[in-house]
Amino acid sequence: MKKILVIEDDLTFVKTLEAYLGKLGYEVYAASRAIEGVAKAKEIKPRLILLDYRLPDATGLEVLVDLKQVESNPQVILMTGFSDIRTAVKAMKLGAFDYITKPVNPDELKLLVEKAMKATSTNDATAKSSDTKSATKKIANLDRDFVRGKSIQSDTLHQHIDLVAPTDMSVLILGESGTGKEYVARRIHSQSKRSKGRFVAVDCGALSEELAISELFGHVKGAFTGAHANKEGQFVAAEGGTLFLDEVGNLSYEVQVKLLRALQERIIQPLGSNTDIPVDVRIVTATNENLLNQVRDGNFREDLYHRINEFKIQVPALIERKDDFWTFTEFFRKHANADLNREVEGFDEDVTAIFNSYTWPGNLRELRNVIRRAILLTHDSTIVSSNSLPPEMKETAGSYTVHGSSPYDLKAQKQNSEREMIIKTLEEARYNKSKAARLLNIDRKTLYLKISKYDIDA
């Protein structure tokens, strides 16, 4: 029987989940605190973990890091309130399989659990070159799984991809979480002279320093506690192909030094070894951080920044792609219909208005998830109504009011959202601007400029 671990401090909710998932044939275990949940996961080795974001002794993001040590490499679904949507998106960058908002809809949960159980982990540290066929198949299906868009922003994005793909230049992809940076990286690979080689993706945001060195460069037996055998790193696994380093700004200084050497000299040295191994890979990196700020703050090497930034591609946020929005929406609707065996034909006027006024912090990923959820909940109609949307989304969309602008002005809506976030962060930091700047991941000068720009009383 497949094991599911629920880490949640609401005992009534836990009992409900145990009963529901038990009826679906799963063996359900529970823990009410983070430390207890991690210990239980190591003990029972579950296939799936349902993790609450707000626990008494830790946040879901902290627990995600600890769960990397679980031998069974379980999928993790984050359970969160809708107000935590940005955190949920960040959790997915740290390795979570997906997220689900509370109150949890049973049909949505069932679909997500089944999907997670079927999924094959793409972060398996022991992946072998036999995965080449699977990786090639994914690249061949890019056109089926994604839609290009028709806006000027989309045209510019794909022009840059077409321009740089045939070269061997290192590419730095910038963009918010959920905008499709990995899709851009895969497109570059599929159009390159290395397309017959492997495309290997590494989520640097989910790796500790020691794990990052081992994951990228490999290790020899006995290099550290638990290193019971030699392991080849992802540089070797991507030989002749493309190595995609997502969230590259999260790498520690020591790993940055080793990465710089690998790029400059085209050789690597496994952890615990004195042997140099020549490598032939193309490097594509991505981040949602401001690397230049990290360079100025001394957290990212300037020489490495220039080495990975031979060509830069900016992936626009969904809110900046007004002319593409309904193209993407229709694309996700058709795919959700096919996946969920539905025949939904469109969206009513209320849903259209909400979609137009909402700021979509999770970008394309959030749009896809919202549409899938809405279509799943549309049982007896061919038109999605606002009743199928999360109630918090309707409240959030209705709360945005940008002075002097149209409710359909996406740029103004984004600015208003940023203003509200800055105000909320200042309040949490008790108007300590240095602390607020750290929480917002910007420098103090930028914060002062935004306070002035948005006429915030601080």
Please characterize this protein's 3D structure:
InterPro entries: AAA+_ATPase, AAA_lid_NorR, CheY-like_superfamily, Homeodomain-like_sf, HTH_Fis, P-loop_NTPase, Sig_transdc_resp-reg_receiver, Sigma_54_int. It holds the Pfam family HTH_8. Keywords: ATP-binding, DNA-binding, Nucleotide-binding, Phosphoprotein, Transcription, Transcription regulation. This is Sigma-54-dependent Fis family transcriptional regulator. One of its GO terms (molecular function) is sequence-specific DNA binding. With 458 residues, the chain is α/β, with parallel strands linked by helices. The chain has four domains: 116 residues, Response regulator (Rossmann fold, 3-Layer(aba) Sandwich); 186 residues, P-loop containing nucleotide triphosphate hydrolases (Rossmann fold, 3-Layer(aba) Sandwich); 82 residues, Helicase, Ruva Protein, domain 3, CATH 1.10.8.60; 44 residues, Orthogonal Bundle (Arc Repressor Mutant, subunit A). Helices cover 47% and strands 12% of the residues. It contains 21 helices and 14 strands. The strands form four sheets. The chain has a five-stranded parallel β-sheet with strand order 2-1-3-4-5, with helices on both faces. A five-stranded parallel β-sheet has the order 7-8-11-6-12. The radius of gyration is 23 Å and the shape is globular. 36% of the residues are buried.
Report, as a whole number of angstroms, the end-to-end distance.
Answer: 56 Å
CATH-assigned fold name of the largest domain: Rossmann fold
Low-confidence stretches: 120-140, 400-405
Strand order of the largest sheet: 2-1-3-4-5
Radius of gyration: 23 Å
What number is the mean pLDDT? Answer: 84
Shape: globular
Largest sheet: 5 strands, parallel
Instruction: Give the helix proportion (percent range).
Output: 40-55%
**Number of separate helices:** 21
Number of beta strands: 14
Strand content: 5-15%
Number of domains: 4
At the fourth level of CATH, the homologous superfamily of the largest domain is P-loop containing nucleotide triphosphate hydrolases
CATH architect. name of the largest domain = 3-Layer(aba) Sandwich
Label the structural class. Answer: alpha/beta
Q: Please write the CATH class name of the largest domain.
A: Alpha Beta
